Amino acid sequence: MPLEDANVNISTHALNYGTGCFEGIRAYWNGETEQLYILKGLEHYKRFVNSCRILKITCPYTAEELLAYTKQILEKNNYREDVYIRPLAFKAARVIKVTLSGLRDEVAIFTVAMGDYVKTEGLSAVVSNWQRIADNIIPSRAKVTGAYINAALANDAATADGYDEALMLSVDGQLSEASSSNFFMVRDNVLITTPVTSDILEGVTRRAVIQLAKDLGIAYDVRPIDRTELYIADEIFLAGTGAQIASITSVDRRQVGTGETGPITRQLQELYYRAVRGMDERYADWVTPVYA
Ligand code: PMP
């Protein structure tokens, strides 16, 4: 149906209490092959189904079925440009009761053409004084709609203070992730990211970057990261569907490394941007072509 007609009532549970979960998926247009590629659709939908389980939302479709529907939506819209895909599952009941049980659920998917990209080079970041929600406060590994208040508070404060991004510490004071992307740094040629138990969203791009690092022979480590490591890192970048691979060149107004996008970040970016547009055979299984 037209997006304008896909509405909910103001008494919808999810609108009042934030009881929904969602995904953010990209489809990349390749003008040379005239093909639109859904990036890591199945991985996103597996996380979506898991988010539903955590929130006790009944999702009557498998990840494979959701991907097939997504392909149909893109095909019907006949997109010839990059697209953002937003699956959403939510407590649709019009009930005033704070619970997760006994409520009717709905699942929807909408798509929008993707305009200009977010900045991917030379971002300035600040360590936010908003802490990242812990798993036993609001599940951080589920992509919960209501939880994005946490990200919005951190991002809004960072922007108001003149920074591009907020880096968030977990309640134990160690690095968690950025407001809507995962964190990577390079120290002494080793790529380092935080473990899935650092109250992060288990990012699809994070896993992709780790795979690229392995394939490129870059040493990597997954371990807790302290705040002061940010001040001595050689390179820092963020990884996410929206952010893609975005270099951070200052943290708390301190220059990171040389102040330019570093060589390991650059190497990963180049390979990533080829893979997502179906331009590298080795990563053919990352993408689902939309058109026959
Ligand atoms: N963390 C948060 C809080 C996010 O919202 C996102 C974006 N979905 C990410 C990390 C990155 O995840 P992904 O690579 O799967 O997009």
TrEMBL record:
UniProt GO BP: isoleucine biosynthetic process; L-leucine biosynthetic process; L-valine biosynthetic process
Name of the protein: Branched-chain-amino-acid aminotransferase
Source organism per UniProt: Alicyclobacillus ferrooxydans
Role played: Acts on leucine, isoleucine and valine.
Coiled coil regions, renumbered to chain: none
EC number: 2.6.1.42
Keywords, alphabetical: Amino-acid biosynthesis, Aminotransferase, Branched-chain amino acid biosynthesis, Pyridoxal phosphate, Transferase
InterPro entries on file: Aminotrans_IV, Aminotrans_IV_CS, Aminotransferase-like, B_amino_transI, BCAT-like_C, BCAT-like_N, Class-IV_PLP-Dep_Aminotrnsfr
Top EC group: transferase
Subunit structure: Homodimer.
Gene: ilvE
Keyword field contains Amino-acid biosynthesis: yes
Catalytic activity: L-valine + 2-oxoglutarate = 3-methyl-2-oxobutanoate + L-glutamate; L-leucine + 2-oxoglutarate = 4-methyl-2-oxopentanoate + L-glutamate; L-isoleucine + 2-oxoglutarate = (S)-3-methyl-2-oxopentanoate + L-glutamate
Pathway in which this enzyme or protein is active: Amino-acid biosynthesis; L-leucine biosynthesis; L-leucine from 3-methyl-2-oxobutanoate: step 4/4; Amino-acid biosynthesis; L-valine biosynthesis; L-valine from pyruvate: step 4/4; Amino-acid biosynthesis; L-isoleucine biosynthesis; L-isoleucine from 2-oxobutanoate: step 4/4
Signal peptide: none
Nucleus found in the keyword field: no
A GO term, aspect molecular function: L-isoleucine-2-oxoglutarate transaminase activity
SUPFAM superfamilies tied to this protein: D-aminoacid aminotransferase-like PLP-dependent enzymes
Cofactor(s) recorded in Swiss-Prot or TrEMBL: pyridoxal 5'-phosphate
Family: Belongs to the class-IV pyridoxal-phosphate-dependent aminotransferase family.
Organism phylogeny: Bacteria, Bacillati, Bacillota, Bacilli, Bacillales
